[in-house]
Amino acid sequence: MSETNGNTVYDLMGGAPTIRRLVEAFYPKVQAHPLLGPLFPEDIHPVMDKQYLFLTQFFGGPQLYSDQYGHPMMRARHMPFLITRERADAWLGCMSEAMGEIGMPDDLKRFLLERLQGPAYHFINTPDED
Length: 130
Prior knowledge:
130 residues, mainly alpha, Globin-like
């Protein structure tokens, strides 16, 4: 799968409604995950709103995140949290489950997860614990 006919990934995945559904399916999984849940505040809604803005921009939609918060600088924003490979894998796993839950086609799901691996692993800032 690739971007075709001038369509962005954002367009191919269904734009704002799909990203909103994805974020809403994703964060309950994150909150329930034993490695990820403790990293997030009890009131997850501000985090969900930022994720919606970021994913919209990341997948080629409007620059919503940058318009509101400036350059994403996501690695720097994640530095206060201990991000291990195990946590990055868990994050990707929750995202995969959320994509399945909203009925995303398998080829699109694989493509998006491949795209998200780069940032997920780039945020790693500490080795896994033994």
